[in-house]
Fold these 2 entries.
Entry 1:
Amino acid sequence: MRNEQKEIYITRFGAFPRLLHVLVIISFLSLAITGMVIKFSEMSVFQTISKILGGYEVTGTIHRFAAMITFLYFFMHLWYLIKKLVKCECSFKEMFSGENSLVPNKNDLKEFIQTVKWFWGLGPRPQYGRWTYWEKFDYFAVFWGITVIGSTGLVLWFPEFFTAIGLPGWLINVATIIHSDEALLAAGFIFTVHFFNTHFRPDKFPMDTVIFTGGVPIEEFKEDRPREYETLQESGELEGKFMAPPSQAFTTIAKIFGFSALITGIIIIILIIYSMVFLYN
Amino acid sequence: MQNADNTLIALNKKLILKYFIISRDINYMTQIKFLSVLKFILFIVPFFFTSLIFAQNSVCFDCHSDRGLSKEKNGKTISLFVDESKFAKSVHGDILCVDCHANVDPEDLPHAKNDGKVDCSDCHDTEEFEASIHGKKSVACYECHTKHEIEPAEIFETNRVALCLSCHVQNKVKGYKQSVHFELFMKGKSGPECVDCHGGGGHKIKSAKISEDDLLKLCASCHKKVVGNYEISLHGQAFSRGKYPAPNCITCHSSHKILSHTNPKAKTYVMNVPNLCGQCHKEGTTVSQLNDISEHNILANYKQSIHGDGLFRRGLIVTAVCSSCHTPHKILPHENPESSINKNNIAKTCMQCHAQIEAVHQKVINGVLWEKEPSKIPACIECHQPHEVRRVFYEDSLSDDMCMGCHSNKNLKKNENGKEISLYVDYKEVKRSVHKDNSCIKCHTNVFTGNNPVCIGSGKVDCSICHAEEVKNYSSSIHGTLHKEGDEVAPYCTDCHGSHNIMKHSDRDSPTFSKRIPDLCGQCHKKGAPADLRYKGVEHNIFKNYEMSIHGKGLLKSGLLVTATCTDCHTTHHELPISDPNSSVNPKNIPKTCAKCHLGVYEIFVKSVHSPKVTKTDKKLPVCNDCHMSHTIERVEYADFRQKIINQCGKCHEDVTKTYFDTFHGKVTKLGSEKTAKCSDCHGSHDILPPDSPDSRLSYKNIVQTCKTCHPNSNRKFVGYLTHATHHDKNKYPFLYYTFWFMTILLIGTFSFFGLHTLFWLPRAFIEKRKANKQKKSEKEK
């Protein structure tokens, strides 16, 4: 407001990834709540949540519905990747090793060491590119998580089918442990590490809305990801990424949604910690 | 030997006589044949011995045959005369005087003082006699046997009774001579004489008195059956407990003057029986005070009854007296099934005299029943009161009108222990009751026409006259026990059944009508009521709980009269606390109690692993109420019951319950799922068997089918799901154990790494932020 001049924004996320992330948020929060309800079913707080949601049966249905959303965005993402390959927007090699690739490489290790040095005041802030190593970790954590939790979840969803095709009965028990503990890991990671790394770290606090709005102010972008800025400038693609700042209304909606998700996540993690302290004591 | 000697003496006497005759007439002698000579020679030897004795003793008899021979001793003249002929006849006739009078020298006259003393023990074994009472009291042998006229045993024994009575002159003892025992003794020794009872032999009498212990044995030696009957009778039982004043044989039959019951003088003669029994059984005696017999004024009533009237006024000796109905010796209380006055036997007893009774009662009772099934008809005494039998019914003799003459007065009251008790009776109420056909005095049996008014002191009604079994049960129940102890709260018959308004339990208005029983019992057992306040067990709020239970709802809401109510489980009259092994609700008896209705379930249950017949263990096995509860029984389909059942099983099976909650079924159940499998859905409920039993629902054969009830596509591999799995048991479930630890390490690793990462980042981020802020500030200032 105080700056009459319109600030220049750089496009970081297209519409499709942003849509996917909204789906991730909605489904993940749903899964986390409804899943923890059964994981910690001894706890009266989760029994109450189950009742609020409409009983254990509705809770189970929500969980399965959210699982379907998860599978949906998982396949949407795979489809997006394949399409990207087929359309030759980028080569196969570029997709798995380039600057825009999410696949970890040597540079990430280097940046990690530089980051640690920076933390300890032994060096400058690394020149982060499009994807930092923790962002890559986040991506693959979700990728891995969906695979593991999704597959074990299917076994638990259709135990009769999976045993009919030859899986032993005790594998359902194994699937239960994996599904439950992996979910605990995922929820715990997202609601603490991801929340901090992305939103709560002092330079972004209280929230980075880029995943909803898609754009970053150019100044911030320059500071945050200097290497990407340089690369874009050199290749002349920077101009193409310019975009108008998101509208006030859109930002507000994004903030409301984002804060709701954050608060929900925090509540869930508090409940998890409370339950674990209470149960395993 | 003695007999042989006697014969020999008699023969010798004859021969001596012959010899003298022969010597006088020598011509006659020539006629004697040779054989006679031989005979003579043969007998001449003993003759010489005998004559020798005569010759010896004759010296003594020279003086002692003198009737005047006497001596003075302590101022008394004692005759020294010995009847020679009688002596010769006595058992000692063939021995020398000096054999007994050893110290006497026949030639030395006069004999020294006391030289004549005889000691029988020189020849006879007197040890036994000396130990006897006669020996101890220094009775001399000759006092019974005489000195010189001692008779042979058989003759002596015949006369012994007189001998005994010559000293034992008491009237009581003398009475023996009139007794049936003496009569029989004289008729050929078939009855006992004195020594038969007193010691068993003339020399063995230990004491005149026969001890009480020996008395029955003594009588039983001849009257075995009678004594046997007596011993099981009320009298015999009281006697063996030493309970005064229990009668023994002597009490009724006397000791010595035992007369036949046909003898009018006998105490047991039919005319005398009522007085004999009455000695103890009339009002005011110790017996009537010691024992709470429901019949009162027995003797007085009997005298006025048709039986008593016949006996006393008309002298009809075939009329019934006490012993005719109660039997002479086997007198038993009416509760005893063997008793002649037991409800089932009374008809038989009366029919001893009233043989054609069927014909008389045909209008009222099917004649065949009298003998075949006497229990199906009212007992005689139910219409003809025991001791007051009259020719006419009570209704006629002492009618209800007479009672109601006073008792219809609403202000009629009596004072008992300072409390005013109304004696008003609503006759209409009586006529509506189940006892409407009974007259007042059928229950109030102790009215006595000798009293004025007749009912004074008639006491409480004894329901056991007709309802013996029920009262017996009640008396041993906790209600009865407390009531007997004087507990004011403990109920008596009338507290549940009412008094004059008693109705059948099938009557809707009866307090014992099944639908009203919870209210009836609740009067004392509902919360805060007296019985509840003193109750120390775990079942509280019984009444409310029952109302909400399946039984209570069935009874009170649906009006299902066959539903279990208080009395169905606790019995009607025999209620006992749960701890009593005879209680219907004792854990040992509970399955049987429930089986009264739930027989099918019971038959399955007794074959299950929880049945003590199948599992032998010291641990407590569950019975019906451990799972279904006692007063809060619910329908098993109700969610509440299904949720609770896990707690019930978990009481004993703690481990598996814990692991159940670690797995899916348990977790969903915790969220309130009712339809998710509970213990009983897989293991069964009443038919639980160990999974290794082929009939178990979880056996290899059955498990797939069992899982199919919820999982229609259940298959052999599917049932391999571990419903009680735990990842804490490395040996039992290694896959789960290692999976769990792998996941745990993964979690710890990830969180540790990123935890540190964040921890280090945070201070750096703050530093950077402050730097950036400063820079912005300085830029602005520029």
Note: Residues 9-279 of chain A form a domain with the Fumarate Reductase Cytochrome B subunit fold (CATH 1.20.950.20).
Entry 2:
Amino acid sequence: MTRKLTLKMAINEAIDQEMARDPKLMLFGQDTAGGVDAGGEVDCWGGVLGVTKGLYTKYGDRVIDAPPTEMAYVGAAIGAAVSGVPVIAEVPFIDFMGVCFDQLLNQAAKMRYMFGGKAETPVVIRTMVGAGINGAAQHSQMLTSIFTHIPGLKVVCPSTPYDAKGLLIEAIRDKDPVIFCEPKNLYETTGDVPKDAYTIPMGKANVIRTGRDVSIITYGPMVQRSLSAAEQLAEKGINVEVVDLRSLSPLDLDTVLSSVQKTGRLVAVDEAYPRCNIATDIVAQVTERQFGLLKAAPQMVSAPHTPVPFSPVLEEFYIPSVERIIQAVEATTK
Amino acid sequence: MTSLDNRSSTTRHTPSTEILLNAYRRMRTIRSFEDRLHVDYKTGIIPGFAHLYAGQEATAVGICSHLSDADQIASTHRGHGHCIAKGVDVVAMMKEIYGKQGGICDGKGGSMHIAELSKGMMGANGILGAGAPLACGAALADKVNGNGHVAVVFGGDGGVNEGAVLESMNLATVWQLPLLFVVENNDYAQSTPQQRTTSVKSYEDRAKGFGMPSVTVNGLDFFEVYQTAGELISKMRQGGGPVLMECKTVRFYGHFEGDEQPYRPTGEVDSARQNKDCLKLFSARAPEFGIHPEQLEAIDNEVNALIDHAVAEAQKAPHPELNELFNGVYVTY
């Protein structure tokens, strides 16, 4: 059975179904339940934006409100995972990863390799990414590329409720550490989501719109904007293909290369800062392999190299717009 | 031993002869392993860094004698002693330190990341304090599994000032995890003495700040470490929460190999080797427990032969195949 769910509730349902399936699976983070032992309403938050609400009521002590000490509880999630207890830990905003970065950079990512391939670390770090809710410089960043850079971590960023559920279940069942990046300004968007549990493999991009003239390669919150751009460009006779990467590590380069093979034109779109981001990586990898068949210089659409501003006017100017994507596509067709 | 809040158990953990001989063997193995590395490092044959544990053996062995393979420890950059105390194979350890095939981590961890999960050794760690959050996780797994296992995290007098350790003391207390925080106080954080690194004289004051019971022991006295650790670990196995245990000890060698320790007062190391050698202290008290000097001497000889064998095996082992570079990054993909 399929019905409409918000992206937020698709994530909630994925966690719920996996906790029901695996009695060992634990969930913790800041205010993951909310209000436990406070004397008032319990399980009233479900994390800062309500994603995990209701799970404490169902699963009790397997859902823990952690102290606001990311280094300790993210590290504990990693330590429990390597000890055979899988954990979903939530770092509310990816901007807070600086507080616990060592545990991800040097511990979770490295254990398997350093220990001669013997460690398994079934931990998922859920975190919110992206601008669009006036969170300003410390609650709005799209730091996906920092984690994609690190061998040993997997990085996922869904763009639809359907993908969010399937990719999260896949991430939970995976034996490697996964950074699961949730575009927070898509939380209330709705889409068709099957009720039963299902998985979507990491490392398999989704050609979300087929086209023959230009390939837009993107992920996460830029997928919908890229689709809007594609629709407007169709009216001008430009037939755009949109590839949603879904996971950034592993990266489905084959699907990207096939698309560019067909179109000969590449636009890479990433909400992140413009230096060393996913767009620069895609352009570099495609150019290295398919330089000869490119019909025009590849284009990149990213945020400017500035912190995310608070002013709603400035923030909207900061986030890559549909217009900028259209301009980039047109630049490849001139 | 000084204070321990909320202490009710007075169980004596009198070690059997078998336990004592096994403990002595592990202490002697650590000493010989490290002494040999100290000599061989000078020849340039061993790559990378090594931080030697010699001098501190009674602490690792006194505590780990109470642990099974299912009880996990998180170690430090000075991790060889913890590995041996936990029963990790010495030949595979030596190969690892040489970066060779057959190393316990396939030659990809080295001295600073040596680990053996199947022995409950969660790894030496190149990042100070980083083992504490991981050990919280191990202890959490024990608690939710209800299996009576415990976790131990070791840290030095400098490293336990890391935020990761302080956050972990808070988390372990709030969550009442069966986790023993061991402060191995050898007086030096690299070259910097304790009074320059730590705001309190006794690490017990740190524990008090987190509402955690604590105790200080002479870390050079195997019998005292063994007795105290035994009491603490038994309580944890029965559902007790975290405890901090400061072990006052000494470091015989430099921070790492190549450190000539000019910062230490003249004669300090010689005096320590003369008067504060935990192996000598052990041997002196062994007859009280019915152990004869000849038994210890026999162990010494066996250990020396084992270390010779480990070095020979490590030196003749082949380097890793180049394609080993790509293995073990992920479980899948």
Note: Chain B touches chain A through 47 residues (CB under 8 Å).
